[in-house]
Design brief:
Blueprint (H helix, E strand, L loop, with lengths): L1 H43 L13 E4 L10 H11 L5 H17 L4 H15 L4 H16 L5 H12 L3 E9 H10 L4 E5 L1 E4 L2 E6 L7 H14 L7 E4 L5 H4 L4 E5 L3 H10 L2 E3 L6 H5 L9 H16 L1
Parallel strand pairs: 1-2, 1-6, 2-3, 6-7, 7-8
Antiparallel strand pairs: 4-5
Helix pairs in contact: 2-3, 2-5, 3-4, 3-12, 5-7
Length: 309
Amino acid sequence: MAALGWLTPRRRSATARSVLAGEASAEAARKSSQEALEAPQVAAEEPEFPVRGDEKAAAFFDLDNTVMQGAALFHFGRGLYKRKFFETRDLARFAWQQAWFRLAGVEDPEHMQDARDSALSIVKGHRVAELESIGEEIYDEYMADRIWPGTRALAQAHLDAGQKVWLVTAAPVEIAQVIARRLGLTGALGTVAESVDGVYTGKLVGEPLHGPAKAEAVRALAAAEGLDLSRCAAYSDSHNDIPMLSLVGHPYAINPDAKLRKHARDKDWRLRDYRTGRKAAKVGIPAAAGVGAVAGGTAAAIALSRRRR
């Protein structure tokens, strides 16, 4: 019995301690639960991006319909026509291609190739310095008021964070560099036209900077600059740029075409659309590229249709 008497207080003491432990545990659980309820609100907040002072990060922006409404090459063609570089029938083709591009909101390989071939033949024999100087004027005349403010703000955010920002485009590198400089960006990657002693030959160096070629250019630049692509961002409107967008850790679909929009949603990429209203209103009816340009564009469409039959 003595033994039992000795055990009884111990059991009571243990029970008391258990109660104390239980109460303490319940209090800790309550606090933990309260903190858990509050934690998701903090975790759900989007982390700072772009990250200020991250020297291993940079941003790469497509140009046509991402930074600027329409295609830079077509606007450049309008400026060259004004300066008598080519004839009215060529202007009609440029006007038709630009109208199609802006209304459709996507790149047609045949139109783009035709435009590049036309541009190369037009600049053949002209000096590089001459085209660079003219490019500055054409930017003010036809491009400056076609910059998407939303995309411009995204680029500025990277610059404000101390990061470098490049345009990556199939447009001639001389024109791309003018646009980059006027926007205060770091520089531009673009299609390189061959020149000898400062004079255009009418040929390309390699191929147009388009699709996979853009991705290779970004990869090469990142290696040269010591960048970590997983910390970089890329922006484009076209599914043709999926190779470039897939290279970086922060891909953005800007004013995306249907294929890119679907791909971006499937991959949970961020989307930004600065267009409003219906499709035609989103990209706008092209301004007249010269007297009779719209009528000329219609005639060019008919001519193209007949030629394909």
